[in-house]
Design brief:
This protein is mostly helical. The protein contains three helices and two strands; from the N terminus they run ββααα. The chain has a two-stranded antiparallel ribbon. A hairpin with an 8-residue loop joins strand 1 and strand 2.
Length: 112
């Protein structure tokens, strides 16, 4: 998600419009609601981790590397931070999503 933007001098220091926060909270609400209800996905627990790409493709690439490092998928380890990851939801910006997809594709991790 792009929660921050650049002010021209440095990255990620200006909060975007309130819509960015609303999208982040909406995703958290939806995941928590699906997990709470037994009739939607029984015996499945969804999770999420939000990484801010600051509306920059280069930051999206850095955050994807941070995700891969936390996940442990780069060295074939099982991560306790994000166990059983089967996919990633991409950024609202197609350029950032494309950067992440190219890197995640090396590990056969789909991004939508």
């Amino acid at each position: 998600l792009s929660v921050h933007v650049s002010d021209g001098e440095s990255y990620c220091n200006v909060l975007r419009e309130s819509g960015a926060i609303q999208r982040m909270l909406s995703m958290a609400y939806a995941v928590n609601e699906v997990n709470r209800r037994d009739d939607l996905l029984p015996n499945v627990t969804l999770g999420f981790a939000i990484y801010d790409d600051c509306s920059k493709e280069t930051i999206a690439l850095v955050e994807t590397l941070n995700f891969i490092s936390a996940q442990g998928i780069g060295n074939g380890c099982t991560s306790s931070m994000y166990p059983n990851v089967i996919g990633v939801v991409g950024a609202e910006n197609s350029g950032s999503t494309r950067m992440a997809a190219e890197l995640l594709g090396l590990f056969h991790l789909p991004i939508i």
